[in-house]
Each structure stands twice: as structure tokens, then as C-alpha cells.
Amino acid sequence: MARVAVVGAGLGGLAAAARLAALGHQVTVLEQARQTGGKLGWYARDGHGFDTGPSLVTLPQVYADLFAATGGPLEDAVDLVRLDPAVDYRFPDGSRLLLPGTRAAIAPAVDAALGHGTGAQWTALMQRAAAMWRVTEQPFLRSPLAGAATLARLARRPSDVATVAPWKTLRGLGEEHLAHPALRMLLDRYATYSGSDPRRAPAVLATVPHVEQEYGSWYVRGGLRRLADAVAERAVERGARVRTGCTVERVLVEGGRTSGVRLAGGEVVRADVVVSAGDAAALYADLLPPSGATRGVRRDLARSTPSLSGFVLLLALRGRTPGLAHHTVLFPVDYDAEFDAVFGTGRHRGAPRPVADPTVYVSAPDDPATRPDDDSESWFVLVNAPRHDPAGGVDWDSPGLADRYARQVLDVLAGRGLDVRDRVRWCTVRTPADLERDTRSAGGSIYGTSSNGTRAAFLRPGNAAPVPGLFLVGGSSHPGGGLPLVALSAEIVAGLVGPA
């Protein structure tokens, strides 16, 4: 039996704790916040409730596997509801696509919304994405990343390399398969699932919409925070101890391997294994003592592009919106201008800034748990935003900036047909600076590093650190961000640590 300290009670850390405790290890989870869940948070006020992080579950089998491996079925722990429609897409030319929640219905819906033949275009792209998924799922998502050796294994079959096309961007794949500009815009959106720019992100990210459409988009009744609660409960049932309000100041290294962690205030928690579930950049910059062993990882992190962040409005609204889907996406006229602003590229080279005319994402679950009565709504509104960077980019703590930008986002919503300005009971604003403070992610980067560039996946820190006894889980380590991938990172780490 190993003593295991898990640093951070986000979903990746909780999943790792549950798996390792089920394997017989003595597990202690240490979380700086007063509650568990990390970015899978919950905000409640005056009867209104909001998920403040992810708004849907994809690839639910990953969580079914997690619960089966730790003692009981997923459906006994949470109530998953399949979303149909999955998303209401509204394009700048006035067209609208209510994307069905079942794969067989998608092509006819695309044809009806965007014109004859567009459904066939999308179907052909998803067939290519399905082939990519078959090639990459096991070696890239369910196995430890072995740097160039992973690509070398793939390269033994030239047909697999051609399928994945590592030289091609997501934008390039869309231009190859999709003639309709709305469909290309729809595909570009999936780069933001990894905090990336579709003009630089790899084509293999087309597997994200394939997974959504093949396995469905799901909501957890009562809010997605219930998934984090259920995983935390499972970890405790298996014997893990969860301590909140504990800030880890240092990962201790003695004799060349981890020996535990030191908390704020000086308490030392001894451990044979440390699992870091926080931001990888913060781990290597702040929690680990500098050493030759970690030089390569720190160099790769310095070379990578941080992921985008998000600017959020939590809107408590009077009344109901007719025909409102669970998810609504309102696209701008100039999508490239958004990525230029967020990443400081193109026309905004070197100078990231809030997006003037952003894509707006609205999550409004029709769930009594989110509202005080049936004549109310609770909207989580998100726009892509540059990370908090007072020294070289946007200072989101600058006086007045957050309030001005909140009004601007409400104006954009109104201009695109969802004017709720006279229905607002109250509005809570969360900026990238708030996200950085709450989660210790660098600048509020949602996914750690982005997938911008051909080598981005290989610059992302691996699950086994170069310091023996130290492992990483969560969205800033391999295989990346998003609810399925953070759970897969926990599965990988449990396999690396092994049974007691």
C-alpha cells in the first residue's frame, strides 16, 4: 500500500483518488478551495443555480468505466439526460441549425437548415473523423504519451498517418470537406474545446464532434456539479480522505523522488506518490524545486501557447424564452477576428484584447434545480477571451473593464436576437483573472496549453513526471482538457501506479 497525496479536487484529481483508493492505496486529497469540483463548479443565489464550468458530458462510457472500476454503476450515482437538440447554432447570415442529439437525424437537419447536399458534406467529414478516432483513441488518449515514440508507432502504418494527417489543421480539413461557410464555422468551433485556434490546431480535433454525435451530448439532472460530487463520494467510500481549505505550497523531493507535500502554514503530508491535479505550468514553476530532471518539461511549457480563457456572465432572468435550447451558439460575422484578438495574432499581433464581436455561448438548462420558479431562467453565458496577463496582454482586473465588457456582451446578445437586458434580475461576472485565482491556472487558461501547432500534443506534460513518484492528471496534462479526457488521465495514472 502506497501513501498517495492528490493535489487538487477537480474531476481529474477526484477520479484518480477514487481509482487509487479502489486499488488499495491510502489516499489523501488536498484542495485549496472550500469545496471540491475544481472548474466543475456551482454558483447559487436567490434560488438561481449555475454550473460554472463544463455544460455537457460527452463519451459517458468513460465515466461508466470509472464507476464500474470503483464499486458500482454510474446510473446509480447520477441521472444522465441525453440532449436533443444538442445545440442551437445561429449563423451570421441568419440561418439556424438545431443540431439533433441522435446521429441518424443530423444529415437531414443540416440539409433542411443549410441546403440540399450540406448534410452529405458533414456526413463525409464525420466519416473521416470516425476513422481518425479509430486510429488515435488507444495510442493517444488511453495510453501514456511517449513523445515521438507514440508517433513512430503510428507511422508503422502509412495509411494511419494519412488518416490522421498530422500536417493538416482543423481549418484545412474543413476547407477540404465543407463547401458551405456555416459548416466550416461550425467545425472551427471545436478548436475551442481545447482552447485553440482552428487555423493552427490539428485536424484530428475533428474527432470531438464525431464523439459528440456518435455517443451523444448529455446533461446531469441537477447540474453537472453532481458528477463531481458523485466521484468525490465514491472516492471517500473507497477509503480516500478529502481535505478542503488546504493550499499546497511545495511538492517535496528527497533522494531524487517525491516524499510528500508541504501545506501553507508548514504542515507536511508525507506520501510515497504525489498526484498533481492542478495546472501543470503552476506545478513546474511554483511547486517543484528547479532541477535538471524537470528542465525539459519546463522548456516545453515555455514553448507552448497557453489556451484561451473565458469571460462569463451568470444571468438571473425573469420570464422564459420561447424555443430556447439547452445550448445556443451565436456566431459572429468575422470568426478569424475573434482568434486574432484572443491569441494576439494577425491583425492584433502581439496585443491580445477582449473580442469586439465575439461568439456567444449560452447554456440554459431546463432544470428546476437551476431556477427559483417556473417564471425564471438561469443563463451561463460564455465568450472566448484572452488570458489574464497584466504584464503583456489584458489586465482583467483593470478598473471598470469587466463591467464594460459585460454590457458589451449583453448588447451583442441583443443584436443577435436574444435581448434579455430588461429581464435581468442580477448578473455575476467571472473574468479570466477570477478563474486564475480560483483554480491557480496560469492566467485563467481553461485547458492549460492549447493544441496550436503540429507538436502541441507532445509539448503537453505527460502523466508520469520526470521526478519519480510524481504523476499528473487533469486538463493541463496528457491527454488534455474536457470531462472525458481528464477522466482518462486518471485511468492512465492509476495504471502507472498499479495496485497496492
Automatic annotation (TrEMBL):
It comes from the Bacteria. One of its GO terms (biological process) is carotenoid biosynthetic process. One of its GO terms (molecular function) is oxidoreductase activity. Residues 11-494 form the Amine oxidase domain. It holds the Pfam family Amino_oxidase. SUPFAM superfamilies: FAD/NAD(P)-binding domain (SSF51905). Pathway: Carotenoid biosynthesis. Keywords: Carotenoid biosynthesis, Oxidoreductase. Belongs to the carotenoid/retinoid oxidoreductase family. This is Phytoene desaturase. The lineage of its organism: Bacteria, Bacillati, Actinomycetota, Actinomycetes, Geodermatophilales. The gene is crtI.
